[in-house]
Amino acid sequence: MKLSIRKDALNEAIGHVIRAVSPRPVIPILGGIKLDADARGLTLTASDTDMTIQSFIPAEKDGEPVVRLDGGGSLVLGAKFFSEIVKKLPTDTVELEASDARRAVIRSGNAEIELVGMDPEEYPVMPSVGESAAFSINGLQLRQLIHRTVFAVSTNESTPILTGVLWQLAEGRLELTATDRHRLSKAECGVAAEPDLKLDQLVIAGRTLNELSRLIPDDGTVIDVQATDSQVLFRMDGILFHSRLLDGTYPDTSRIITNQYKTELVMSTRELADAIERAYLLSKEEKTNIVRLSTVGDGTIEVSSSSLEIGKVTERITPEHLAGEELKIAFNSRYMLDALKVIDSEKIHIGFTGAMSPILLRPHQDPDMLHLILPYRTTT
């Protein structure tokens, strides 16, 4: 292999794929980045077996050369040092030469670095999705769906299926659901798909979706998605993002979602979030995060928390709309704040089905997002 490449293009591609490199790889070669050069350009690949990212640098872009190839080939270089050294090279052009797969020379200006490589034949092959279901989605919409749900996945590895987000598609609508059994977040949007295409029980790890979200461009580019029973592939401009699906059956959460409430209110999202944030400051000192909400009887609600060592916070708020039975309920304020932070509507609708029944939050007059939080049983 022998080529020269623009440093900015190489840096960007390394930044994309290095997200799939594990700090503790199961086999040494997965601690590296694979480089494949041919007449089309340079392809970089990284994988941790659960997630594989591939970034392609074309030989030419917008009529300007990016990669000049004098000889094709493949090699694998240690990801950590390779990425760090490329960032610190002195000129805008990088020369890369490898007489064999085990040793590479990088030149830039007066700098010359020799790196020991690994055998590219030992590097895992990029998985193939073969015959698969396919649809397309606007990248910004996909990022928003992930942002609105992924925070609610479980961090408990004893229930692996709940560490992922459930994807379901029917009638051209894609719905993402995440739950850790204490809270639930659901969001949906329309996608470009065949009318009869249906997907169910497609579960992608939350960690993987966070990495995917960071790779999505800000220009609203369309992302093509291909899925099988065991894997999913996302295609975007110059990037292939492959993920293994989580094994298992995701629990049916539809039974706990209702539109029948005993008490409901509509109010400013920001005003409620600020009040709960102030109450949270005391509740976290007790290491419980418990905040209480109650109706007062004069059309207002009261948000409160207390700490034996510090004191008590009580704040009254007047909602825009309050109807139904009197209510006293306690909940995890951290869970509530997580949900409120991803609701970008000025007003929020909250439905209560009882002091020990789920709390349901929706952006006011927006049916495409839902958050559910289970309350706490308290003695006071």
Strand portion:
35-45%
Q: Class of the largest domain, according to the CATH hierarchy? A: Alpha Beta
The pLDDT mean sits at: 94
Distance between the termini: 72 Å
> Which architecture name of the largest domain does CATH use?
Roll
Unreliable stretches covering 5 or more consecutive residues: none
Structural class: alpha+beta
What is the domain total for the residues?
A: 3
With helices defined by DSSP (H or I, 4 residues minimum), what is the helix count? Answer: 6
How many β-strand stretches?
28
- Helical content stands at 10-25%
Structure report:
- By secondary structure, this protein is α+β, with helices and mostly antiparallel strands.
- The chain has 3 domains: 2-122, DNA Polymerase III, subunit A, domain 2 (DNA Polymerase III, Chain A, domain 2), CATH 3.10.150; 133-253, Roll (DNA Polymerase III, Chain A, domain 2); 257-373, Proliferating Cell Nuclear Antigen (Box), CATH 3.70.10.
- The chain contains 6 helices and 28 strands.
- The protein has helices at 7-17, 79-87, 139-149, 206-215, 269-283, 333-341, and strands at residues 2-6, 32-38, 41-47, 51-58, 60-61, 64-65, 67-71, 73-78, 93-100, 103-108, 111-118, 133-138, 164-170, 173-179, 183-190, 199-205, 222-227, 231-236, 239-244, 263-268, 290-295, 301-307, 311-317, 321-324, 328-332, 347-352, 359-363, 369-373.
- Strands 7-1-9-10-11-8-2-3-4-19-18-17-12 form a 13-stranded antiparallel β-sheet. Strands 16-13-14-15-28-27-26-20-24 form a 9-stranded antiparallel β-sheet. The chain has a 4-stranded antiparallel β-sheet with strand order 23-22-21-25.
- A hairpin with a 5-residue loop joins strand 27 (359-363) and strand 28.
- The longest helix is centred in the last third of the chain and has 15 residues, at 269-283.
- The mean pLDDT is 94.
